[in-house]
Amino acid sequence: MHILSLSTLVLAPTLSVMAQQDRPPDLLSEAGIFVDMCSQVLADDLVPYSVNSPLWSDGTVKTRFIRLPAGTEVGFLERDHWVFPGGTLLVKNFYLDLVVGDPTDPGA
Known about the structure:
The chain has one helix and nine strands, in the order E-E-H-E-E-E-E-E-E-E. The protein has one helix at 15-20, and strands at residues 2-4, 9-11, 34-36, 41-42, 47-49, 61-67, 75-76, 82-83, 89-95. The two termini are 32 Å apart. It has a four-stranded antiparallel β-sheet, with no helix packed on it. The chain has a three-stranded antiparallel β-sheet with strand order 5-6-9, with no helix packed on it.
């Protein structure tokens, strides 16, 4: 289980949660993120989200997605803390323009 706050990431594994989780896939293609890896078509159950204050990443463009296990929801521990159910998948993609400043560039 990972607990996120607005300023920090705290890793707080618990035995009960760790016992329920399967081993992460060895290959990205096995994670179920993309329906088609080559064209990067995302799975239908990934929900896009954005952050209020994105960090600079050397000019890259980032996309973010979340997948919650069926029938679950994100909970709250206390002020500014989230609790994600076991099996939650968070995805952050980094894209780099092949032609700097050209948003139509296929690298973005």
